[in-house]
Write a structure and sequence with these properties.
alpha/beta; Immunoglobulin-like; TIM Barrel; binds calcium ion
Amino acid sequence: MTRPKLKITLALLLLSQYVLAQLPALERVEPAFWWVGFKNPKVQLIVHGDKIGASQASLNYAGVKLTAVHKVENTNYLFLDLAISAAARPGKFPITFKQTGKKDLVYNYELKQRNTAQGAQGVTNKDLIYLLMPDRFSNGDPSNDVVKGMLEAGLHRDSMYSRHGGDIQGVINHLDYLKDLGVTAIWMTPEIENNEPHASYHGYAVTDYYKIDPRYGTNELFKSYVAKCHAMGLKVIKDLVHNHIGTESWLIQDIPMKSWVHQWPKYTNSNFRDAAVMDPHGAAADKKQMLDGWFDKRMADLNQNNPYVQNYLTQNHIWWIEYAGIDGLRLDTYPYNDAVYMADWSKKVKAEFPRLSIFGETLVWSVANQAFFTQGNTVNRGFDTQLPGITDAQIKDAIAEALNGKEGWTDGVNRIYNIVAQDFMYQDPTRNTVFLDNHDMSRFYSIVNEDFTKFKSGMAMLLTMRGVPQMYYGDEILLKGYSNPDGLVREDFPGGWEADKKNKFTAEGRDKKENEAFNYIRTLANYRKRTTALQTGKLMQYIPRNGIYTYFRYDDKKTVMIAYNGSEKESALDTDYFSERMAGFNSGTDVITGQKISNIKQLLIPAKTTLIIELSK
Ligand code: CA
């Protein structure tokens, strides 16, 4: 290469950077389209473009009124309030922006007809949720592994912080696998664009609310993923982040107004103490820092008291549910949000999608702290959060204690008994999501020190407890790992990549023990699928006796007895005491082995083992 040529290249490079730095006259309008037929006739468009704030916006379309135009601090923005009457027809119409001394700008806005047939189905206690991280599950499309222009360079499977290339196509390719396992709902960590320079794979630093990350696929592919799931009887949960926004977002890079996010004189973290939100003796400063402090340097804390932010987020969520046909929502970092906004958000979303299910992430430290965030004013809060479900971290910890701890008045199996007894704190505990692990904590098989008997007992309790069970990808093949750092529990599913030596999506690729784990979960999950007693049935539990924790799930069709021996030795369980639930039953069937049990008067249960018995007359 000769020197003059290099000079030209450099000049072109500088020029292209200059051009990129200039905002187009009309850069974007969001939501890019909307629907006719929502209960709420209002939609607020955010318009971003070079000095667009100085223009005069107008439209002329039957049934649609431009009721207000808001100019804000940053002259690159306009907010347009539209009222769409029920009589408005689906179709396209121009929105014109007049600028003095310049050509008019025109955006062709589209109103689509709502697809009421697909309507959100809701994810309930009839379901089994499978949580996965799309970057780490399977690479179904190597052509999107590295996308030009994204800030995080390259693909490095050997680094737990880098992108590994998994994507939505990879999940589509394994829907059969999940269906076979007995899963009925899939929750992926956020799929929308995270154009952050580091560790963008986790998905919680959103940079474009209306776009699937191009390394995962396209909006159209996501929509077709949901349709494929539905065709197979699988439901889809979307993971939403209300609390914070990625600092590389266009909304932060060219912020509409200072108050879009919480501003601090110098960088201030949240104190991550949910108690500060509910503490009647708490200091206002602690509560403010909990709610308004930033989650991370690259995750700015959204100001949910700002009405523009409120509209932006709420509409975006409604847009995705309607666009793709989402069945349930998981709300990230729930306690960090503004409670009044979240209640209003929930009412607005549920008004449009009555069957949609919603659960908030509440990684807190007591039943009271969890119940504080749930719907219905059952905890002297004087305010209804309108949040139907939460992630039940107390059951998770109690199951681990029952498996690993030594029996005491409040320890070992008594922990889970006591935690379940506190269900009076909830308006409806059957909406709680029950889990043993997730992407932010140590894997369950490691929590039980790779004790296979304990592993099966934990899974047994997960799939027979009240509430909505959720498992984490790889539990079924005994993936291990302690979550410090998180990347250690976010490894690639073996067989998800073309080059992988082992393919654990197939029975041949799994070893004997892995197949036993997979088959155990599959047997129980499929039994649960056809047993309403384990889904919507009532739960009755007994005070642990002789080291054994016993509970029943029952309805008018079936009664299932679950007995877990938390002690270190084989113990006998005399069942006479359980006559309230067992009267009239003479025998049973072991749900896992299918073996008949003729004598249910006395059961011998090996150490750390759980028996699941369907009772018969
Ligand atoms: Ca890929």
